[in-house]
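Priority: medium. Attachment 1 of 2:
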């Protein structure tokens, strides 16, 4: 939960440099690799700052039990899961309320992009495993999920790219890290389809004025466009250059 938790850490110094050395409009390093799992129809691995997340996609495939299928369209199922070693204190491997919520959020952010109507009575399953968490895992997971869907050959209207912006030391910043998430004033994860110029996810934890809200959204969309370039690079490396590094 956001909310300006007390901290001795200097989140933003007098030169506009953040606690991890970044400028206010600078995202963490993003690295994405497509096609990393042999046994999934599509897959991706992302490092977004110190976040490390694997995405595997299966389908379209038959729905079990059958009564859950839809004769008019396919269905999308997402599971976001944090491994017990993904955070400092061992996490209970059982799904938490937060994981169930983020699974739902990611599914709803992907739905406008995935052309499920082409596969009635089937399901597309997206599995997301957080190997290491450093704040902003839902955006990083969404970036990886989108690449994995494309890698699986699932028809999509556009990629979904995601990045967060937030408010730290009364300043709007791009890509909130874990320390800023704990001690900052607001966090706004955003999902965005760059070619269609449509937002598929906006959440806000914290309090912003109307002007700060608009600025935060604009800054987050700029971050989404940076993530999109990395998503394209990963797919291009897998399918057009043979360079999967």
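Attachment 2 of 2:
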């Amino acid at each position: 939960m956001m909310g300006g938790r007390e901290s001795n850490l200097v989140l933003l110094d007098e030169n506009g440099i953040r606690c991890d050395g970044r400028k206010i409009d600078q995202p963490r390093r993003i690295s994405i690799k497509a096609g990393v799992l042999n046994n999934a129809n599509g897959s991706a691995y992302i490092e977004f700052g110190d976040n490390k997340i694997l995405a595997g996609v299966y389908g379209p495939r038959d729905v079990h039990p059958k009564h859950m299928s839809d004769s008019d369209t396919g269905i999308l199922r997402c599971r976001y899961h944090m491994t017990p070693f993904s955070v400092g204190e061992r996490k209970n491997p059982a799904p938490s309320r937060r994981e169930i919520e983020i699974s739902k959020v990611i599914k709803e952010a992907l739905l406008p992009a995935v052309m499920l109507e082409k596969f009635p009575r089937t399901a597309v399953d997206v599995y997301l495993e957080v190997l290491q968490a450093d704040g902003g895992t839902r955006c990083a997971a969404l970036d990886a999920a989108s690449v994995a869907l494309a890698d699986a050959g699932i028809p999509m209207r556009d990629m979904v790219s995601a990045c967060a912006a937030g408010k730290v030391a009364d300043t709007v910043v791009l890509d909130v890290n874990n320390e800023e998430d704990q001690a900052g004033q607001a966090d706004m994860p955003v999902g965005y389809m760059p070619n269609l110029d449509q937002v598929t996810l906006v959440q806000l934890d914290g309090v912003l004025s109307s002007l700060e809200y608009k600025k935060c959204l604009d800054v987050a969309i700029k971050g989404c466009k940076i993530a999109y370039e990395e998503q394209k690079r990963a797919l291009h490396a897998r399918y057009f250059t043979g360079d999967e590094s």
